[in-house]
Design goal:
Length: 964
């Protein structure tokens, strides 16, 4: 029988609830005042644990044990040293639990900020940018427990207990859980009275839910959870429709909820995911109550957790990425991790611990795991999981978009007005969104400005290839469709964050592939929201996985110490534990595979490679005679030393097998070094570091090159009816970066000229991406020659001219290589009627590159005449590569047109780069990259870059006139 007393919604964490202004519905109990009003309310949990009130208000009482584990017993075993890879919520949750048990913890994070998918950062203008929209459901018991422990619970703002749907035209629908009596009646009345569905759909909806395991959860939560798990094999749509639910209910209510939970719709999400949430909503009053942080996650969530960890003696190591898992396999077949090969820029070290935790997301763990471990079904199952792409857009307006009642108030900037809650919509590509200036005002409300809408585009696939400007245009148009009253408000700032693989795709039948936190490798553990736990992939799931990982480690404490002693006894200097490449400049060869005393093999997670080092020619060494003190590199992936991976984490350039030849994946799209690296070495300078890395040292130049960049702007490409790449970078943007950098190193034009007179400027290689985009849109070679080449060459020349105006006196402008020989171009554009040259390359394509180069040489000749005191040098990349082609066997090459890293077809390359790109799990690479001209579909190998730079240096030195 339901208790007759009135239940106040119990709040398991501190916070303030705010009235939701901005609209008034028929029968609405709220004020229509448009001002945000903060009202303090007292929340409490009743103490009688056996009362029904407690059962429906206290999350941990009469609840599934898998979701709400008891507090861990005090650890009494030996103190352990634990290394955690990944400073996301799962990694930090693991660290907190271990530190509380007295262990020593180090956390390694490859990025410059912590938090993972819950992270945020501040851009150069002071704007807080989040990885996604973060909403805290009332059933996040484990996360609330963590936040209370670290003192972050006070940073949550409780919203009105209603779920708001914004429909086309500003029509508002609600699931209103505000009711004098708690669960399950509050939920029943919410679904029966919702105005988001029509009467028939509500009735069928009620029937479906009445026939679900949700009802069983009221009396047997663990039994209900078992039943829910057993429904993982079907989609929510299939289950819901089979129980009498309607397609309209799915489209108008459940799809937006599914998108918000898992970034996929009801046809594609497992019934397990949705019913897990429903069971909590039905049985716990607070489960459906939403909270949001009062500011950015970095300040109000990750920040307090980090402080707690550091106060407990834990250590964070940012920008340290794990490149390899070092491991041994003993004679009895047992596998043990012996260390982690870590790197930070050119610094390297091997980290040793008693236990190792990989707290990664799905793409991260796939990149990290040694390929040999896939022989174990446990690890191989992980590769059945894939991430969902998601795009998060922030739009700052000059007024209040979600204020629907008072048009005049929506235009003022004195106070925040509008809808202060998470918002769902079935009528836009962003299924959930919020006005952060209202919901999280500490960092997002800016005096004198208006709404900051944060919109989550799901599915994100259609938006991933679009430039930011097009995404902003489409999203702002959809905002206007939802809020016609916002007509006339302008977007004054925006940001776009694309994550290629976010939450794992919780489709039907995928739950069995989720790995446990305890692995077959005794001292290696997993954490992450994708790992096995009873909740879904979420912040709560990540936190729970950390608790479970810590419990497994503590349980194995004695065994881990014994294993450490065993490993120490069998270690031998004859079996190196890492690839000891002490200095990239030395390019020392690393040899693995020695035999240790007990006969077990010494392995790395990637094959060991021999590096053939060719000394620089005497001519190349003479570049030092130029007395250069800096190199400024502009260009695309041919010269990108790490910018692209900092912007697009989906790119694999900072993960093995990229960098395999020099045993360091630094973000370069090659198995080793690039031409700019060799040129820097020849000049006696350090490697040029990427502009996008805030930790880079720019004392000897800057690399502005970004993979995928075009010469012309995105706007120009669009005028030619050519969709740009995902990046909207152009050579003009790189010039802007340089000018911004210049303002930091010199104060006036004269000082800048003095500063730059000893610098070398490399403007390219560039142009190929412009042409490839055109070809992909079925532009003919003649169209490209007649329309594009003159503009591309003119743009390159104009940028070179501006650099000269700033003080450059040595400007090198490279031409294009004959990329008609590249595996990518051959695979994508070769036809039965293609004309090939003697080497099997596409002759028409290479002729086009010659056409570009001829125009470029003519333009540079004009620059020399205009600036006779400046050394403007054409770098003949085409002839440099032709030298290699003509001397393939003499130089040790065996393959011109086949990629070393890749799979598929006669060129070892597939056009389906989403599935078969170099660097993705399971994609093979050759055993000897130095025998291949191309490392992957379009980038040269380490060895090729070495020979190309040697040839160019010999050719360019006389033209640079360094001895003059």
């Amino acid at each position: 029988m339901m208790a007759s007393s009135i239940l106040l919604p119990a709040n398991s964490v501190a916070g303030t609830r705010r009235r939701t202004p901005g609209f008034l519905l028929s029968g609405d109990r709220r004020s229509s005042t448009a001002q945000v009003v903060r009202t303090q309310r007292l929340f409490f949990v009743r103490s009688a644990l056996d009362s029904l009130e407690t059962k429906v208000s206290d999350m941990s009482v009469n609840a599934p044990k898998g979701l709400f584990p008891p507090e861990p017993e005090h650890y009494r075993g030996p103190k352990l040293k634990v290394a955690i890879i990944g400073a996301g919520l799962a990694g930090m949750s693991t660290a907190v639990e271990l530190l509380d048990q007295g262990h020593e913890v180090d956390i390694y994070e490859s990025r410059t900020f912590i938090g993972g998918k819950v992270g945020s950062f501040v851009d150069r203008r002071g704007n807080h940018i989040e990885m996604g929209l973060h909403v805290f459901f009332g059933c996040y018991n484990n996360l609330f427990r963590l936040m209370k422990k670290v003192g972050a619970d006070k940073n949550l703002l409780v919203k009105e207990h209603t779920h708001t749907f914004v429909n086309k035209g500003g029509d508002i629908g609600e699931l209103d859980f505000r009711f004098p009596i708690g669960a399950p009646l509050h939920g029943i009345q919410a679904f029966l009275t919702t105005n988001q569905l029509k009467t028939y759909d509500k009735a069928r909806n009620a029937v479906a839910l009445a026939l679900s395991p949700v009802v069983k959860a009221l009396i047997d939560p663990d039994g209900a959870m078992t039943d829910i798990r057993n429904l993982d094999s079907i989609s929510f749509s299939d289950w819901f429709l089979s129980k009498g639910g309607t397609r309209t209910s799915i489209q108008r209510m459940w799809d937006p909820v599914a998108y918000a939970l898992g970034f996929i719709d009801c046809d594609n999400i497992s019934a397990r995911c949705m019913l897990t949430i429903f069971s909590l909503f039905a049985t716990k009053t607070e489960a459906s109550l939403l909270r949001m942080l009062k500011g950015s996650p970095d300040v109000y969530l990750s920040g307090p957790i980090r402080k707690y960890i550091e106060d407990k003696g834990g250590r964070f190591h940012l920008r340290w990425g794990c490149r390899q898992i070092l491991y041994d396999t003993s004679a009895d077949g047992e596998t043990y991790v012996t260390g982690l090969a870590m790197s930070k820029s050119t610094n390297k070290k091997v980290v040793k611990a008693d236990a190792y935790v990989a707290a990664c997301d799905v793409p991260g763990i796939k990149r990290l795991l040694p390929s040999q471990w896939r022989e174990s079904k446990f690890f191989d199952n992980i590769y059945e999981l894939v991430g969902v792409p998601v795009v998060t857009v922030q739009l700052r307006y000059d007024g209040w978009v979600t204020e629907l009642q008072d048009l005049e108030r929506s235009r003022q900037s004195r106070q925040a007005v509008g809808l202060d809650n998470l918002l769902y919509t079935p009528d836009a590509d962003f299924s959930c969104f919020a006005d952060l200036a209202l919901t999280s005002p500490e960092d997002y409300y800016i005096e004198g400005q208006g709404s900051l809408l944060q919109c989550v585009l799901t599915p994100g696939d259609p938006y991933m290839p679009l430039v930011n400007e097009e995404i902003i245009k489409r999203v702002s148009k959809q905002v206007l469709t939802l809020f016609p009253s916002s007509q006339g408000l302008e977007v004054i700032w925006s940001s776009v964050v694309k994550i290629g693989q976010s939450l794992y795709r919780e489709g039907p039948g995928k739950d069995p592939f989720r790995p446990d936190q305890k692995t077959p490798v005794k001292n290696f553990f997993l954490a992450g929201s994708y790992t096995k736990q009873d909740y879904i992939d979420s912040m709560e799931g990540a936190t729970l996985s950390g608790r479970q990982a810590s419990a497994y480690i503590c349980e194995a404490g004695e065994e881990l110490v014994a294993l450490k002693k065993k490993l120490a006894a069998v270690e031998s200097p004859e079996c190196p534990q890492s690839a000891a490449v002490a200095d990239e400049l030395s390019l020392l060869e690393s040899i693995m595979g020695s035999v240790i005393k007990d006969g077990s093999s010494c392995f790395l997670s990637f094959c060991c490679v021999f590096i053939l080092v060719h000394p620089f020619s005497c001519d190349a060494q003479e570049l030092k005679a130029c007395g250069l003190d800096a190199i400024y590199q502009f260009g695309d992936s041919i010269s990108d030393t790490g910018n692209a991976v900092l912007e697009f984490s989906i790119l694999p350039y900072d993960q093995f097998p990229y960098g395999i030849t020099v045993n360091n994946a630094t973000g370069r799209p090659s198995d080793g070094l690039l031409m700019v690296d060799y040129i820097a070495q020849a000049a006696g300078l350090p490697f040029v570091e990427p502009y996008e890395n805030p930790k880079s040292n720019f004392s000897h130049g800057v690399d502005f090159a970004v993979a995928g960049v075009t010469v012309v702007t995105a706007e120009t490409l669009v005028k030619w009816h050519i969709p740009p790449f995902v990046t909207n970078h152009s050579l003009t943007l790189q010039l802007g970066w340089f000018e911004k950098h210049l303002s930091t190193i010199c104060s006036d034009p004269k000082a800048c000229q003095e500063k730059l007179k000893s610098a070398l400027f490399m403007v390219g290689t560039m142009g190929s991406n412009d042409y490839f985009l055109a070809l992909s849109r079925n532009k003919t070679l003649e169209e490209i020659k007649n329309t594009m080449v003159p503009v591309v060459v003119q743009t390159i020349t104009e940028v070179a001219k501006k650099l000269i105006g700033h003080g450059a006196v040595r400007v090198v402008v490279p031409g294009l290589h004959q990329l008609g020989c590249s595996p990518g171009i051959l695979t994508a554009f070769e036809t039965n009627t293609s004309v090939h040259d003697a080497q099997g390359c596409l002759k028409d394509f290479n002729d086009m590159f010659v056409y570009h180069n001829d125009h470029l040489k003519t333009a540079l000749e004009g620059l020399r005449k205009e600036f006779p005191n400046v050394h403007v040098v054409y770098a003949d990349n085409y002839s440099a590569l032709q030298y290699i082609i003509d001397n393939l066997s003499k130089l040790g090459f065996k393959a011109l047109r086949e990629a070393c890293c890749g799979t598929g077809g006669k060129y070892n390359y597939s056009v389906d780069q989403l599935k078969f790109a170099c660097g993705l799990p399971g994609i093979p690479y050759c055993s000897n990259p130095r025998e291949h001209v191309f490392w992957d579909g379009g980038h040269f190998s380490h060895q090729t870059n070495k020979f190309l730079s040697d040839w160019l240096l010999r050719d360019m030195l006389p033209k640079l006139q360094c001895a003059a």
